[in-house]
Amino acid sequence: MTASGLCTTDAVRTELFGGLVAEFVALVRSQYDKILPEQSPDRALTRNGWFYEPSVAEAAFEQMLAAESDRLDFWRQHHLVDTQVQNGRLTRATFVSAKNERVEVEARTFIDATYEGDLAASAKVPYRVGREGRAEFGESKAGIHYMNWRTGEQIQTPDTGEPSPAIQAFCARSIFTDDSEQLVPIEKPATYEEHLPDLLPLLEDFKSGRLKNFSYGAKLPRRKYELNGSITALTSSNCPGISWNWPEANREHRQRLERFHIDHVASMIWFFQNQPGVPDHVAQLWRKTGLHRAEFKTTG
User: Fold this and answer.
1) Residue 3 per-residue DSSP state
2) How many Å apart are CA 280 and CA 34, to the nearest integer?
3) Any residues with CB less than 8 A from the CB of 108 and at least 6 apart, and which?
4) 163 close to 133: Cβ distance less than 8 angstroms
5) In what order do the strands lie in the sheet with 224-227?
6) Adjacent-strand bridge partners of 220
């Protein structure tokens, strides 16, 4: 994820991290030692290697892979399609490549390092999606709760403690730039009208004063910005509810969900740039930005 747009590491106490994380951060720092002049103000934006551009994170990962190339095979764009379990042990996993070639792997030990736990799920390891109810294990904070995430105070309605199928909202972490020499203009998505009903309430937010600005997000080196979703804003790059099927969705379904989240962000930026009723200072700000041509070269 760090090479895919999640470029502001949530590491409050960095001294607690070691191993591969520490190796990665050190490589990010070494990348910036080569890229940024010693007195560059952009060095402060890297937070000593914990904040970075996706392309720099990718370069760090490539270094890590190259250093282990004599004993590590890294297969790009391979997707899990099947597993075989014998006597309660995972013995084989089958993958398919981007060229639709099947590859079978037999091993004594498998490590599921997927974000979703797909390998374990395919091997029928028990799991659940969502939150268990308060009554199941007698946990006071289990189930549905409405509270201020900063203070822990209950808001909106009494807690029910009921189970919930919901998972956290997803967003397409997006990298923008206001550098005119590197800027790729945002194009109006073909699905814009599908996203418009979610965006129109922003006009009332601006009109009422509930929302006064809408920034590019976290500032990164070399005039890049990372836009993240908001857990407090009524409308942001987050898509609450859309992601609920993601954990158990097949690859084709996930591709459609991924496209939806990307189009949602692109639609929001187009909305800010072109929709009548958006405050002039917000429209002018976003008309200066676009995608960065040096990021995500192979995927767009």
Assistant:
1) T
2) 40
3) none
4) yes
5) 183-184, 290-292, 174-177, 224-227, 218-220
6) 224
- pLDDT tens digit string along 148-167? 878 878 776 777 889 999 99
Task: Please choose, from the candidates 300, 295, 291, the residue with its C-alpha nearest in 3D space to the C-alpha of residue 2.
Answer: 295
Burial of 35 (0-12, 13-18, 19+ CB in 10 A): middle
Numbers of helices and strands, H then E, in the chain: 9, 8
For β-strands 218-220 and 89-96, DSSP reports them as unpaired
Place of tokens 């857990």: 231
* Short-list 191, 194, 192, 212, CA closest to 202: 212
pLDDT, tens digit (0-9, with 9 covering 90-100), for 193-235: 999 999 999 999 999 999 999 999 999 999 999 999 988 788 9
Give the separation between CA 187 and CA 270, rounded to whole angstroms.
7
The per-residue DSSP string of 15-61 comes to GG--HHHHHHHHHHHHHHHHHS-TT-THHHHTGGGTB--HHHHHHHH
- pLDDT-flagged residues of the chain (< 50): none
Q: Which two tokens stand for residue 267?
A: 């639609």
Predicted TM-score of the model (pTM): 0.91
Q: Dump strand ranges (E) for the chain.
A: 79-86, 89-96, 102-106, 174-177, 183-184, 218-220, 224-227, 290-292
